[in-house]
Amino acid sequence: MMLNGGFFRLPNDLPKPVWRYPMYYVAFHKYANQGFYKNEFPGLSFPNIQATGGATVSGSEILRNFWQVEMRYSKWVDLAVLCGMVVLYRLLFLAIEKLKPMIAGLRFRSTMRSVQVAEQGSGSQ
C-alpha cells in the first residue's frame, strides 16, 4: 500500500542508472500493478476533461500516457512473471535452508581451529 500511496514513482520519473534498470524490473510491484491496470482499464472510456482531443479518452490511452504502462505484452505475461518470482524465491529460500547447516558447520570448524591454535600456542611458553 505504501508504494501506491505516493512513494511509487512512474517509470519515466525514476533515475535511470540504479532505480530504473535493475530495481524497477526486479520489483514485483511493477508486474502486479501493471497486470491489474491491464485487467481493468482496456475497453473503458472516460470523459476528456482536457481542452485537447475528443470527448472521451480510452482506457488503453490512459494506461499508455498517464500510468506509463508497458502495453507490448498482455496481463497474462505479468501474471506469469509474478508466478515465476514466487517459484524462484521459494527455491532460493529452500537452498538457503539447506545450506544453513553446512555454513554453521564451517563456522564451528573455523572456531575450533582457532581454539586449538591458541591452546597449542599457549602451551609452548
Structure, described:
This protein has helices spanning 3-7, 16-26, 28-40, 59-65, 75-123, and strands at 45-47, 56-58. The protein has a two-stranded antiparallel sheet. The termini are far apart. The mean pLDDT is 82. It has a domain at 1-72. With 125 residues, it is mainly alpha-helical. A hairpin with an 8-residue loop joins strand 1 and strand 2 (56-58). Keywords: Transport. Belongs to the ABC transporter superfamily. ABCG family. Eye pigment precursor importer (TC 3.A.1.204) subfamily. This is CDR ABC transporter domain-containing protein.
Would you spell out the secondary-structure blueprint of this structure?
Elements: H1 3-7, H2 16-26, H3 28-40, E1 45-47, E2 56-58, H4 59-65, H5 75-123
Antiparallel strand pairs: 1-2
Helix pairs in contact: 3-5
* Strand segment count: 2
Q: How many helices in DSSP terms?
A: 5
Q: Can you give the helix content as a percent range?
A: 55-70%
Percent range for β-strand residues: under 5%
**End-to-end distance, in Å?**
65 Å
**Average predicted local confidence, pLDDT:** 82
Question: What overall geometry do the principal axes of the alpha carbons give?
Answer: elongated
Query: Structural class given helices, strands, pairing?
Result: mainly alpha
Low-confidence stretches: none
User: Main β-sheet, in a few words?
Assistant: 2 strands, antiparallel
Strand order of the largest sheet: 1-2
Rg of Cα set: 26 Å
Order of H and E elements: HHHEEHH
